Protein 1
Amino acid sequence: MASATTRTPSSHGALTRAVRDAAAFDPSGLAPLAGLRAAVGLVASLAIGLAVGGPSAAVIAASGALIIGILSVTGGVRPPLVTMIVTGVAQASSIFVGSATGQVAAVHVGILVLWAFAGGLSVALGQGATTVGLQAIIAFVVYGRFAESPVGALRLAGVALAGATFQILLTGVVRWPAALRAQRAHLAVVFRELASLARGDPNTSSLPVAEAADVAQRFVSGSSLLARDDGTAMRGLLDEARRTRLTLVSLAGLRRRMGPGPGSFVTDVQGLLQDGAHIFDDVAAALTTSDEAVIERLRVRIDTLSRSTRELHPSTADATTLTSATVDVVAALAGQLRAINTLVDEIWHSGRPKLRRPHLNRRRDRNWRERVRSNIEQIHSDLDPQSAPFRHATRMAVLVPASSLIGEYTPLARG
């Protein structure tokens, strides 16, 4: 009885937390402009289908647009073009096969087993492939109930593909949401102040950097309601700027303790700080311009500074505990600059108008043969009953056809 009493508060607390988490509302997931764009594509596909082919065509075209619209919202500022295209094609193919085989139950269920297994196994290739596999299974099951001749099934698939294509084109033309210009401008001020701090003597105050960061915080935090990838990157960039300010303050303290000194080590550190100041200026410029030369210059300067940092070693005569600590702090600064470069690159690409459309990852596309080979090897390695993707695919291959049969041959209400 005592043990039951002691477990009750814990169980009640766990239940309360579960209910609270289930009812929680996180506004950072809202993406109103991207959602509006997807809704426009959906309604337009519905209207065009209704005008051209009637209610059935309208619903099928809208279903094709709906899936792509969801991807355009969840794919960030630059939705993945390949995933959108492959999903549309996979959905259309599934509609054709599911509808064309719907009149022969044995064939239909047999193919559905293979379809569900392949869709379940797609989890081995990541989120994009999982999306494609899941939508293919759903399309097969749903349109398998609308049995048609091969010609009729091809017509259904074509209408769905037309809706998906319309949504992809709309996503490419309508570049919502727009770049966050005000946020970029205030972040640029922070990095100009960091450049001034890096150029100054060891007694230069870091207060202007802190004040600029506080102002930028008010602008950057507001972008969370747009659920944007570049909004997240901007907050990360501001955090890196604040950490970099503290690193520069630490480095200034070490420089004061070392004094001006005649040694080459102090001169090398001052030279690295001047290089860092140029990098901060380039970051500010990258945030407020669409000039690709600025981004390329930023990369080159950071690579150069990283090499110089690795070569920073005090001579035997200069070596002290202070110089050793300075080397460590400079190395930390170089790491922060590399992190800043990564975030700036993401923000810059997200903010360019012509790049806020569905994108191809050109770096990956150059090695598409290698990627295909790697995917095949991954699938082959997961064709093992002990692997998690194989077990998931097996469950899908059993449960999806079973559920479809239950829905088909039992008098359960649907709709």
Note: The radius of gyration is 29 Å.
Protein 2
Amino acid sequence: MKGLVILMSDNYISESLLADITSVSKRTVKSWKKNGKVIPASNGMYSLDDLKHFPQVKGMLESKWEKDQQIKPLRSYKSVELFAGAGGLAIGLERAGFSPVALNEIDKNACSTLRKNRPNWNVIEGDIANVDFTVYKDVDFLSGGFPCQAFSYAGKKLGFEDTRGTLFFELARAIKEMKPKVFLGENVRGLLTHDNGNTLEVIKSVISELGYTLVEPRVLKAIFYRVPQKRERLFLVCIRNDLLEGVDFSWPETYSRVLVLSDALKKGELYDTDCPKSAGQRYPERKKEILHMVPPGGCWVDLPDEIQREYMKTSYFMGGGKTGMARRLSYDSPSLTLTCAPAQKQTERCHPEEDRPLNIREYARIQTFPDDWVFEGASSSQYKQIGNAVPVNLGHAMGLRLISLLNDIERNTRGELA
């Protein structure tokens, strides 16, 4: 742990962190160093001040993060959340100042998790298709992380009715029945290119038909919002057309530094204590022996050749890539994106020091859940709930900017009434 102190102190960052910030490979950073695009200091680290030509670094150095933290709602804004899962986005929005009046989720264990932690929340368990949203007419804000599904095409521009049978249709129906002032759609980055971009085009068309204006969608990288994880989410912010005049949505400010795995698992900026012990998956004995040979930040390529062949089997002969296999995380880098299970062969998430997968509380911390947020169900369900969640701190950063947007709308409405 000793070397971690200089990882991002005194405005210096490591080579691996520079790669994470600029979304390139370490190999690319090495080529930049070779051709003089980036020049390391004598300690081998990189000064942020020398990297201002990268917009991501410029954003960190000029961050107005603390200003965003001062945003407070002018009044209580009522919200409804669909596809709520285990509550990652819901906690973030609650911290920002939203007052949830209903949360819908079909998974029974996720619903139990929500009820366990927030007994006062109105959790509607069941298929969204069976929910009547007309009872929530006075809602200010709606959010939903709808699954990415293709639409059936008939050679024409699709409208609301043409999307029937998909979960996006149910989200659109909720918008149509509630008419919230603002709604937030959240999805995987892949929605941008899903079905050659046709899926997003249909979504945009339906949003317009419903009487809303879509802010140009943006992919946010969680590492810029106090989340120690390389996770990306696509956000769609939509404003009701009759409320557009005089309002402006701004995306959240980036944080001034990138947090790493040690920030999640050890006492420090994010948490007051080391990560509490908890249940978790275990490796079979042979797999444990093999992972023992992998250094922090390493993967199958760091194994002896004969062990590579044994572990990779036929994948060994396919060459290149597959860096998620036999992958051990490192304290001095953000975690790789968490999946629904920590010990899948293609997306291994081995503890940086111990020969085991990440446990449930470690998983939760990497997603920035509070330590007192309890997950219900079998351990496999708990891993899945956490892995599917929006990181709490990312949800909070978005929530603050959405509160600011609703404050603008509120001021305009009060002005009209005056």
Note: The longest strand covers residues 232-240.
Protein 3
Amino acid sequence: MNLEPMLNHLWELSHDAKQYSDLVNLCQKEAINNLPQRIVFNTKEILRHLCSECLVATYHELRTEGKLNRRTREERVQLLDREYLQNKGFVQYFLNKYPVIRDAAYNTVHDYVALCTGVVRSYYDNMYTISDALGNRYGSILDISLPSGDLHNGKAVCIVTFEKGKLVYKPRDRETDQIIENFISNLILPGLPHSLSFRFPKGCQCKNNSWQEFIEYAQCDNMEQVHNFYYRAGIYLATFYVFSSCDMHYDNMISCGEYPFFDVKTLVTGRMDNDMILPKSINNSILSTNVLPISVDSVALDINMSALFTGRHQSKRVVQYTIVPDKEMDWVFEKNMLYNEKVRKIERKIKNMKTQRLLVVDDNLSLIHMIREHAKNSGKMEVLYEAHDGEEGFRMIKNHANEIDLVLLDLIMPNKDGI
């Protein structure tokens, strides 16, 4: 299907003309005349995603009613494009028939245009301050990505592309990032038995928002970097556990070689006593941070969302539908169990990795058993040793250092604590 005519009508019917006109005037003032066109293009991608499934349903209805009476699918699609998708009246009928899509289209377009307006204003009001703080003259804005998370009243994290680089725009201050940076730098790193460098993203605080350097994904070059990566991830894990942070899933972490980076939106989170979300045995442990792999059959979302990508990535209960070609119906909805698509490439890469040998140090025996089961199910980890307090764990490390690839360590234990 050629959706472009329909998307043009959807844009015309969904956007706020005055709001968009204000954005165009702002862009003209800052001499970034091509940006509004790019924003419209991005907005159409949102609309394409919103309407595709119901459009297929409408296609089936038109065909059943005999309004697409042609011999082949190609001929039926051509008729649909010519008689319906190019017709503004049909698009208005489509929106009225599906009011949820109509409202979602208006709200999403309105919020995205508001986000772009806020990004442009923030950057050009603080351009020299941002350049000085981050050490680069970025030039004009070329593109503002679709939000990496949910839009909330025109506020969301997004990636902004400039003539000379990229930056991450955040609709909040940098206080939580600075708390984490200060905690690790001043309380944890000085107490380590050996020097370990940490990288924290450079940032610039503006009024009611902030800018941060864009971290490019990069693989580790050797096993030493892999070990350093997990060592640093363990330090982050301990820090998040201390602050009761529980939203450190894969969307909030990026790996740049041996350095993990986390986007800390909410630092402290109250524990929720609800077994449908997480069982108490997990909710009161380091697993609640979402840094480590976890999937539990008894909760509503039984798919692993952890930052470190191991364990089950296909749900046993949550269903998703995809549109696939069909000889008789032209298109049908194929039922599949929800799958974490972002891990497919990583799964291919780890197939040839050797099994990681673990030492688990924790005085909670049930938690050790749970970790042992998760390691076994992953197929790439094995709990080789376990210890039940800090002193025993230290002896294990000393006596079996050449056999252990990774140590999972509790913070609070008898005799000697994890720190």
Note: The mean pLDDT is 84.
Protein 4
Amino acid sequence: MYYKNAMRSLGICVIIAILFPLNHNLKAQTVDYSEIFWLYGQSVYGITFRKSDFTAELDSIQNPAFGIGGSAVATDPITGDLLFYTDGNVVYDRGHTLIAGYSPGLNGNTTANQPALVSALPGQQDQYIIIANSASYSAGGTISSARIDMTAQGNAPNAGTPPFGEMLSPVNTFLTNNASEGMIVIGNAIGTQFWLITHERNTATFFITPIIGTGLDLVGSTSVNFAADGMPAMLAGNLSWSMAAGKIAVSPQDTARNVHLLDFDIATGILSYDQHELNSANFDPDAVANDIYSIYDTEWSPDGTKLYISRHGSNGTEGMVYQFDLNNPTGTLQPILPSPVFRSYGLKKGPDQNIYHLFRANNGGPFRLGQISDTDSISSLVVYQQPYFPPDFNGRQFPETAPYKIPEFDLVG
């Protein structure tokens, strides 16, 4: 019996040894469809990227009973099938109806910048977690979560249809009751580890919370304060991650605060301070209620050498997108838009490697979409096209998408 068990264990170890280098390179060898569905805003319109070549296409599949702020979308990274999406409050399945088992309690602020995130649960087959944030500008938020079981048939019309999923009751994670609006989930390069990064309102403190098979690992959560590195207390409106650069850009909601850059090590989960971007602060006073962002968003170029900054605009200041060149960190920020806009909102890099931009050209006007191409280039070579698609998207921010997760393999039947 001992010999038999020992040989069985040895066989499993050999299989793992063979599969590990394959898994290690799986992401590089597999097309990743995790970002092809962009569902956001209070309209039926969204963007879908073709699986064949990632060309952006306008679609009208979304349930319009949705928040005007940020959202989160889960898509199967291997098949490209839409799984579910949320604005931090409602959760819709792939049929665009409330997911089975839905109950209120996520409490995400549906007008906020990053009220919802989605991540797969490592080591679990077809299990996901929604993370929602109730923060509203200067009012600190709580972090709630809910598990999504994508093995459940849910609202699927028949047994032959892929599962539509089921939501478990949301819970308060008690991670914090003082979160800023900005938060992000980061995965490692091969999709086996994930971390939630959050910011404490009116501080220079960030929490790094691992995501494990059961949800958020509060016991393993750590914090770091960057005040000694020169980061001022702030309200972080948005966190933007670049795998190529290994950096997070922190967008301040406050006036008189620069964009700050942090380094994140995806091998160790360690967060450290990098630098601030000179002259990126907006000193214009906020004069319009609920129009209270200084820097609304940032997004990285594909190679991680350029950062694009969406300056929101306010009383006396028009909206603009600027380029910050990490190869010339003391250089002047370069404007990208052909002309200023009334309000500048979300930025997001698509799987086609272009950056998309939400804006309002004038007060009371529609929420339009622009496209920024050649974004690895210096500012004079960058191309901006507006509007890229004509409809009113009625939304300020693009969705956060679930990071790539390596497929689970059942090694022992």
Note: DSSP finds two helices and 29 strands in the chain.
